[in-house]
Write a structure and sequence with these properties.
335 residues, binds nickel (II) ion, 15 strands, single chain
């Protein structure tokens, strides 16, 4: 099954999305990869690999994450964003040593050349207590999350969703490893304590004339390994194809959007693509989305995969650790 994108009639100068080169993103059934026979796994992995090479985006269905859990997490996100600004500003990401907490509208600049994003968000990473050896050792990005006081049950719900995303990301990596002719567990020892990042996002609607430099989420590619995005039914996500045109990525009920980040492009010697994307919410409605960015361990070395190099195809990038890469990107996108 594929989904056709972009209706010419709906495009407006500058910010619209049109139909050209990749004009569809596949919807891949993850069932065979989760539990199937080797042939089914192989077929699914190949479909994932092909989409990663050609598009850098996939929808996945039959992913095993209960719809109730997804719906409940969106309800929790709405509950959080409905708090008064002063309550949210008690846990500001800006003052956190570890990039966790709340950030208001216009604070994040996803496109570093544009103005601040028209979205507010709540970020968390792996929940690490004071006794964690890496926290004790003062390793960057390792530490506690910041939680709001007045939302009973919020922390447990969000951490439950985080755990489900981590498991799904590992399943996807098994498929990607197979598609790259590696052992399906190739990424396992590089993702034992991943610095995965969950965000709750709220995009108020944008009205009137829209300046491309001030939109919900400025044009960017993600910086991690892979992203699992849950979007509500409002729409507004766009992808840029190889011809430089913006293509709509409409919500599909029950499916996640998967895309690759810069680290995976680097790891695969650019065989897999970190495709640029952005969000413009012109729906007139509030939009909520929940991306989960999966990064490898802080000390994991991202070094051109053995199956992605050879004579005539030398590594394009120097090895870098997961931590070095993530810190550099976070420093660049928050004012
Ligand atoms: C992001 C992103 C898309 C969305 O946060 O990197 O691309 O729908 N989000 O919120
Ligand atoms: Ni993104």
């Amino acid at each position: 099954m594929t989904v056709a994108f972009g209706l010419k009639e709906r495009t407006a100068a500058g910010i619209g999305a049109q139909r050209v080169p990749f004009d569809s993103v596949p919807v891949i059934d993850l069932g065979p990869l989760r539990s199937g026979d080797p042939a089914g796994k192989r077929r699914t992995a190949d479909a994932i690999g092909r989409a990663c090479e050609e598009i850098g985006f996939i929808y996945i269905a039959n992913h095993g994450v209960p719809q109730d859990l997804i719906d409940h997490t969106f309800a929790e996100a709405k509950r959080f964003f409905a708090l008064p600004l002063a309550a949210k500003m008690k846990i500001p990401l800006k003052d956190s040593a570890n990039y966790r907490g709340y950030f208001p509208l216009k604070e994040e600049k996803t496109d570093v050349t544009a103005m601040g994003d028209l979205k507010e968000g709540f970020d968390l990473m792996r929940e690490l207590g004071p006794d964690d050896p890496d926290v004790r050792a003062g390793k960057p990005l390792h530490g506690p999350n910041q939680w709001p006081d007045d939302l009973p049950g919020f922390r447990a719900s969000i951490l439950g969703y985080y755990a489900a995303m981590e498991e799904l990301a590992k399943t996807l990596l098994r498929g990607m490893a197979l598609s790259l002719d590696l052992d399906e567990n190739w990424f396992a020892d590089k993702t034992k304590k991943p610095l995965a990042y969950l965000r709750l996002l709220h995009y108020p609607p944008q009205k009137g004339m829209i300046d491309e430099r001030e939109i919900g989420c400025g044009a960017h590619s993600d910086y991690g390994c892979l992203t699992i995005l849950a979007q509500d039914q409002v729409g507004g996500l766009q992808l840029r194809n190889s011809a430089g045109q913006w293509i709509e990525a409409p919500p599909i009920p029950g499916a996640f959007v998967i895309n690759l980040g810069d680290q995976m492009a680097r790891w695969t010697n650019e065989r897999f693509q970190a495709t640029p994307h952005r969000v413009i919410n012109r729906s007139g409605k509030e939009r909520y989305s929940i991306p989960f960015f999966f990064d490898p361990d802080f000390d994991a070395v991202i070094e051109c995969l053995p199956s992605c190099q050879g004579p005539g195809n030398p590594p394009k990038h120097k090895p870098i650790t997961g931590g070095e890469h993530l810190l550099g990107m976070l420093n660049a996108t928050f004012k």
